[in-house]
Amino acid sequence: MANGLRWISTAYDLGYTFTLCEGIGPRDLLVRMGAEPHHLHELADDVVAELQMRPEDGHLSDLDFLDWEDESLVARLTEAGFLSHPEALVRAGAVPGWAYAIENFTSRAPAHLAALSQGTRAYTVFRSVNGEHEVGYAVDGRVLAYYEPHLGHPGGTGGEPGVPGFQYSGEELPDAAFLHFLEREHGIHVSWEDFQAPLPTAAFA
To answer: pTM above the 0.85 mark?
Structure first.
């Protein structure tokens, strides 16, 4: 897949949340979402998918990535919540000047948008498995906009006009249009290969 961001909208069939924060690092982003720094582990995209697809009654030996006889590793992952069927697994990476986070089908970041933007600015885009689309924007601890672009009105909080610079034309799906906007507005590109590599990851109960 080509570099950019729009490919993200086709890579997660069950929905996703993609978040950008300016001027901070990936680990700081996860901590701002509520993670404990000592509970972060670097996991690849396929490992996260394996954890999310693990049956409730599955045994640790079913996890291909995990040497379940490595008691120290199992203990660390258990303490950090990765092996207890967490509600959300969030991976975070970096591009020049920005940190980003990706969630496969969950949507934790929007509830923490104010915290994510403390001293900076943050964007988020969410698409559900049912086709709901929401975008958000916050600056210095204040959420200025969170709305559904396809409804035809921005609905920014407090009467704000919506995400500055983003106009939804309806020519493509709202989440793809928003990713295109972030590419164009800030020159942000994340390669598919970088996305697959191990990244700092947090488990949230």
So the answer is: yes
